[in-house]
Amino acid sequence: ARTLTFLGIESSCDDTAAAIVRHGDDGTQILASIVSGQTELHAAFGGVVPEIAARAHAEKLDLCVEQALEQAQLGLTDLDGIAVTAGPGLIGGVMSGVMCAKGIAAGTGLPLVGVNHLAGHALTPRLTDGMAFPYLMLLVSGGHCQFLIAHGSEEFTRLGGTIDDAPGEAFDKTAKLLALPQPGGPNVETEAEGGNPKAYAFPRPLLDRPGCDMSFSGLKTALLRTRDEVVAQHGGLPRAIRRDICASFQAAVTDVLVKKSRRALTEYMDLAPSAPGFAVAGGVAANRAIRAGLESVATEFGATFVAPPLRLCTDNAAMIAWAGLERFRLGHRDGMDLVARPRWPL
Ligand code: KG4
Ligand code: ZN
């Protein structure tokens, strides 16, 4: 195949990102990847404020693209196409990215390819490990939680997912309840290290229900009750007990993800894949207990397990460049009428 070099642009949530990916017969290279976060801008509001996010993306996008070209030591004329997240996400941010991409496409005459953000996550194991279709994917972050089978670059089946909170959200809320700093995930994980995972029996909802759907919102209520009981009894939250709570919480989340992965793998194996693969993406994939649990289920089924490096598991533009490149190879092109879509199921 002809070697292709793609610029990727991502601005669907609270990270502004630009990246350059090259793919040809001699392999795949991430020539540049710039991610500029907005955490400080939103910190005072306790969540992402869409208007602030959109304005910050509009201000940062050009600079991110410039930095990516500089890092790759390339000019716009060295590119073969521009890929941009066209949804789903916060509409103002997605529009900023689409407008930036259209501007570059109009100025250079380069082809434009709109990409689904979730497809970007779902195709990452191909960018990092060249994983072959069909493979099973678990997207698990602060905003997403779903099992997908990737049959092709544009063909996915959803096997199930959370019906309420995402696990990352549960980690963040747990941290808040236990007065640990944000982001909750890494802090709860560290605190869980010295704790007893069997100290508290936190709920594992939907576990004996068929299918791959999950629920994590009940954990919050159970945790709140436990915390209040401990505080009433001890007049505070002793460190050793907090460790036990964190360890027990993490065990509950891990248990649900592992058992539902077993279900999803069973459905996936019915497709008789010749080289079975199970991949995970999203910030929660950074958790060592969860990662280890998922890896051992993959091993049970004889499937190759891939957990991409964290910087490619969380929001980035390399995955968008890659997904655009795959779509382009299938003949997909978008025109100046490409629209930003707040909702866009895979
Ligand atoms: O993929 P991501 O950066 O952004 C989206 O939510 O889309 O994921 C961030 C989430 C946060 O909720 C964070 O607490 C969680 O991933 N996270 C973790 C860990 N590191 C990050 N959760 C559990 N254990 C971790 N080590
Ligand atoms: Zn994402």
Structure notes:
By secondary structure, this protein is α/β, with parallel strands linked by helices. The chain has 2 domains: 4-130 and 312-329, ATPase, nucleotide binding domain (Nucleotidyltransferase, domain 5), CATH 3.30.420.40; 135-274, Nucleotidyltransferase, domain 5. It contains 11 helices and 10 strands. Strands 3-2-1-4-5 form a 5-stranded mixed sheet, sandwiched between helices. It has a 5-stranded mixed sheet with strand order 8-7-6-9-10, sandwiched between helices. Strand 4, helix 3 and strand 5 (112-116) form a beta-alpha-beta unit. The longest helix has 31 residues, at 239-269. The mean pLDDT is 95. Bound molecules: 5'-O-[(R)-(carboxyoxy)(hydroxy)phosphoryl]adenosine and zinc ion. Its EC number is 2.3.1.234. Keywords: Acyltransferase, Cytoplasm, Iron, Metal-binding, Transferase, tRNA processing. GO terms for molecular function: tRNA N(6)-L-threonylcarbamoyladenine synthase activity. It catalyses: L-threonylcarbamoyladenylate + adenosine(37) in tRNA = N(6)-L-threonylcarbamoyladenosine(37) in tRNA + AMP + H(+). It is found in: Cytoplasm.
